[in-house]
Design a protein that fits this description.
Elements (H helix, E strand, L loop, with lengths): L3 E5 L5 H8 L7 E3 L1 H10 L11 E11 L2 E11 L11 H4 L1 H11 L4 E6 L25 H18 L5 E6 L2 H4 L3 H8 L10 H12 L4 H10 L4 E6 L5 H14 L3
Parallel strand pairs: 1-4, 1-5, 5-6, 6-7
Antiparallel strand pairs: 2-3, 3-4
């Protein structure tokens, strides 16, 4: 099996997360400065329709009690046309589609970055990005429908994946007290408030309720799959690092 696939929809915040992860002001997770410069130069950008995949590689180092662990990560951006419900993009671009599948099917884990949906946000919030309003976010039903397409894709094309991390990003927009939530979930090798199972259950029931049926469907249909739920934010290092610390604990050699 390969490394970790880092993927998500447009505007989910993948680039911003990766840039902040590479910030030298780290706690337990490090991305080297060369990778930071490469990501920064690429910028968020877009993905052209004729491309199946826009790929960037970076290594993540996680400092654990047992020592430093290294995670090879492939960051994949895909054109939105691939995921349209009525799209026949894979049939129109079979070679590009197979290229995309060859990357994702070799992964030991997938980290899927999800944007927040409208109903989870307060009516007014001082931290909305770039003057966005609540109405600029997709609705809860649109969010559920989009995740259903991810479920269909994973079931059809990733039958051997072992770890799927669902990261609901931009937690600073929907958490009433971001620092308090981070304290509840933060990694501390010497004094954990919650173990990994308790962290997952807390986030699963508090923030992922709309897609419980789909998460259960994935767990049922893919043998030995472990789905874990996280909230992430560029404004809190504890939440930012947590998915990588989990992966370092379970995957890295």
């Amino acid at each position: 099996m390969g490394g970790v696939i880092y993927i998500g929809d447009r505007q989910a915040g993948k680039t911003h997360l990766a840039l902040e992860l590479a910030n030298p002001k780290k706690k337990w997770v490090t991305v080297d400065s060369l990778t930071y410069r490469k990501i920064d130069k690429k910028g968020p950008g877009g993905t052209k329709a004729e491309q199946s995949i826009y790929k960037r590689d970076f290594n993540v180092k996680v400092g654990l009690r047992a020592g430093e662990k290294e995670i090879l990560t492939n960051w994949l951006d895909t054109p939105g046309e691939i995921w349209q419900p009525s799209s026949n993009w894979p049939d129109q671009h079979p070679d590009l589609w197979q290229n995309f599948l060859s990357h994702i099917q070799q992964a030991a884990a997938i980290q899927l970055i999800l944007p927040p949906y409208r109903e989870i946000l307060p009516d007014h919030h001082p931290n909305y990005y770039n003057s966005l309003t609540r109405q600029d976010f997709i609705t809860r039903q649109q969010w559920i429908n989009r995740f259903k397409r991810w479920v269909k894709f994973f079931k059809q094309n990733c039958p051997r994946i072992e770890h799927l991390l669902l990261c609901l990003n931009k937690a600073d927009l929907f958490c009433e007290d971001l620092n308090h939530e981070a304290e509840q979930l933060a990694y501390d090798p010497y004094n954990q408030k919650k173990d990994w199972q308790e962290k997952d259950q807390y986030v699963y029931y508090r923030y992922f309720t709309p897609i419980h049926p789909q998460i259960n469907e994935l767990n049922y249909h893919i043998n030995d799959l472990s789905v874990r739920c996280f909230i992430t934010s560029v404004h809190n290092r504890n939440l930012l690092e947590l998915p990588w610390i989990y992966l370092g604990s379970y995957l890295a050699e």
